[in-house]
Amino acid sequence: KFRVVKPDLPGRGDTVAPSAGSMEDYADFLEAILQALEAPAGLAGFSMGGYAALALARRRPEKLAALALVDTRAQPDDEAGRAKRDEAIATARSGGVEPIADAMVPKLLSPASLGNRDLVERVRRIMLRQKPETVAGDLAAMRDRADARPALSGIAVPTLVVVGAEDALTPPADAEGQVGATGRPSRRVAFHRQWYRRDPTGG
User: Fold this and answer.
1) Which pLDDT tens digit goes with each residue over 142-168?
2) Cβ atoms 68, 159 nearer than 8 A
3) Strands, E, within 23-147: which ranges?
4) What was the pLDDT predicted at 188?
5) Do the beta carbons of residue 159 and residue 182 sit within 8 Å?
6) Is the predicted pLDDT of residue 96 greater than 80, yes or no?
7) What residues does 69 pair with on adjacent strands?
């Protein structure tokens, strides 16, 4: 039997603390949860959660028994990417979450999935449930995250890298790069087609 814990990161769900605006702070949040569990534990990070998982793996590898990186990447934003984050932060603060959702949905879903009206509306509802300040904090955390590539070779636990075959934001080539750099011989990549390209609140 496995105990599965799915935490609400700060700023959402039942976690009343505001969004930290830092990937290192999100890693601190995850570490506090792991301290309350029987460590080491397996950790899976999806999209932005993968950034936080990589930050924790870099700082506290002894806390992990296994790692899954799903539709995420180790490299930081480049200059153009950071500029886009800044624009999105300004949009979230001035116009709320709706314009962010309008811009992101076509990037989050595969072309075939965009024809599924129910799915599109479901993704929009997930995004619109987020507070503007939470979205702005997440965008800042992603913009400022450290380059995790130098630490990949130090990952010694079994690691699974999963990516959508049609993921445009974290494409399969990025996943292959993570697999080639991690230090665990049993690593592998699973390519699959999926409705969601990534976490609707991540990027």
Assistant:
1) 999 999 999 888 888 888 888 888 888
2) yes
3) 41-46, 64-70
4) 53
5) yes
6) yes
7) 45, 161
